[in-house]
Design brief:
The protein is of the alpha/beta class. It contains six helices and four strands. It is flat.
């Protein structure tokens, strides 16, 4: 758009990680030619995250595919903040495969789809060829 029509453009995904949200504001500010100062909001959000992580650190989280955004982004952020996310539900796993951040440091979670269950940490293996499991996720151990 910028090259063809001269309209400033930036692509910003739906993030839950504070650092990625901050980077999105920086990109947006550059695209529209202003500096967006989010330092006060960033600090307030960090304080809230610390509070809720302390409050809910004893829980395990399962993230469904109907969240407002990406279940992988949410799992990434929650894992980064120290919360346990053993399950992610998603119809397709293509989003995981396309994001290099998950390839570098995948969350240790089981991906539940309509067709199969597999450990996300196994997706980095070139020989990974997932097949349906015969045991329910609650009974499987790996």
């Amino acid at each position: 758009m910028e090259k063809k029509h001269g309209i400033p453009f930036c692509d910003i995904s739906h993030y839950y990680d504070l650092d990625l949200i901050h980077q999105s504001y920086v990109k947006l500010g550059k695209a529209i030619g202003v500096e967006l100062d989010d330092a006060r909001y960033y600090q307030e959000a960090q304080d809230n995250i610390k509070h809720y992580v302390q409050m809910f650190s004893h829980l395990k989280f399962a993230i469904g595919q109907e969240v407002n955004g990406s279940p992988f982004e949410m799992a990434y952020a929650l894992s980064k903040y120290g919360l346990e996310v053993p399950y992610i539900c998603k119809r397709q796993r293509y989003e995981y495969l396309l994001n290099p951040r998950y390839q570098q440091k995948p969350p240790s979670a089981m991906l539940l789809t309509l067709l199969y269950c597999l450990r996300i940490s196994r997706l980095n293996s070139a020989s990974d060829n997932p097949s349906p499991r015969s045991t329910p996720p609650s009974e499987s151990r790996s």
